[in-house]
Amino acid sequence: MNLLTKIMIIGVSLTLFGCKMTDRPNLPTTIENKQALKEGYGLIIGSLSRANAAAIYDIWSIRLRATDPQINEDINILGKASTTAPFVAYDFDYREKMYSGNLFAYIVPAGEYEFYDYRLYQTRDAFYRNWNPKNEFSMPISVKSGAINYIGEYSATKNYNWEVSSNETRDIAFFKAKYPNLDWSTLIIALPEKNNEKSILLKTN
Questions:
Q1: What gap in Å lies between CA 59 and CA 56, rounded to an integer?
Q2: How far is CA 120 from CA 106, 123, 130, 156, in A?
Q3: pTM for this one?
Q4: Can you give the residue ranges of every domain in the chain?
Q5: Which class for 10: exposed (0-12), middle (13-18), buried (19 or more C-beta within 10 A)?
Q6: pLDDT tens, N- to C-terminus, the chain (205 residues)
Q7: Which of 65, 63, 67 is nearest to 25 (CA)?
């Protein structure tokens, strides 16, 4: 097998397998205004980022759930790299100097929610490491009915922690371009304002 053939096989493997093994938060191709802004429901939008650094995470995710037991809603906002191909592959919506990541959008019942768990995972050959909080935590947000709720940027840092901030200029411009049919006059900023987990830094105040 000559060198050119080997290169072609690697390229095909990356295309067929590497990209398929990546994962990203939910971002529908289209969102109907009547579904997103239906009475009793709200659209939550935001971004999930990962630090740009050598030997950084292959999985980075944070979980959100409704605090009302009558609302059965639990969302794993997940980012995942492909480590099955010869080169690590990603499916990012944006790449910036410090962070790269994805936008997300979910239609959920309106009400009170909380972030309560996260996962950072790193694998290198036969070795792997997981970072999780020791206990469930509570970082609450409110989802308003009939509104587009921007809940911020959630960033896995290079120090194995998280930062929560607002990146409205970048994120909302992206969403408006992707979903020009939505009624953007209903947009509200619904960032978390408190948190009881020391490994998560709130930069929203």
A1: 9
A2: 22, 10, 6, 8
A3: 0.86
A4: 3-202
A5: middle
A6: 554 444 444 444 434 443 445 678 999 999 999 999 999 999 999 999 999 976 688 999 999 999 999 999 999 999 988 666 555 567 899 999 999 999 999 999 999 999 999 999 988 766 788 999 999 999 999 999 999 999 999 999 999 999 999 999 999 999 999 999 999 999 999 999 999 999 999 998 7
A7: 63
Closest to 140 (Cα-Cα) out of 78, 97, 91, 191: 191
Q: Give me the long-range contacts of 125-133 (CB less than 8 A, separation at least 24).
A: 131/160, 133/197, 133/199
Question: CA neighbours within 13 Å on the CB side: how many for 53?
Answer: 12
Three-point CA angle 115, 68, 154, nearest 5°: 15
Type of residue numbered 103: L
How far, rounded to the nearest angstrom, does the alpha carbon of residue 132 sit from its chain's CA centroid? 16
**46, 40, 56: which is closest to 165 by C-alpha?**
46
53 to 10, 34, 93: CA distances (angstroms): 25, 41, 17
DSSP state, 4? H
